[in-house]
Amino acid sequence: MLQWLQSILAVVILFTLGCSIYYSVKYRRQHSRKQRGIYAAKMNISMGVMLLAISLVQFLLFTGSTLRVIVGAVFLLLGLFNLFAGIRNYGLFSRVNE
After folding, report:
1. Full domain range(s) for residue 14
2. pLDDT at 23 exceeding the cut of 70
3. Which residue of 21, 28, 30, 52 is most buried, as measured by CB atoms within 10 A?
4. Rounded (10°) angle between helices 2-29 and 33-60
């Protein structure tokens, strides 16, 4: 069970890392303001999911030392903030007319 969970979280982390890099490159090369906003929002969403997965690794796969719990909590809060901001910005920029 633990090996299965570790494999799933590793795949999620690597996939969202790739998505973050892809959308970051697309964001920097785009000239349209609307498309830049959409790519930045997608990058925030993928970074938020990645940080949430990293926090789950910290909480579920290792013993609970104080430092590990603090790092996991910080990653959890940053991930939730990035996910919320990305979803909000994606909704805003998808409705913008240029």
Report:
1. 2-94
2. yes
3. 52
4. 160
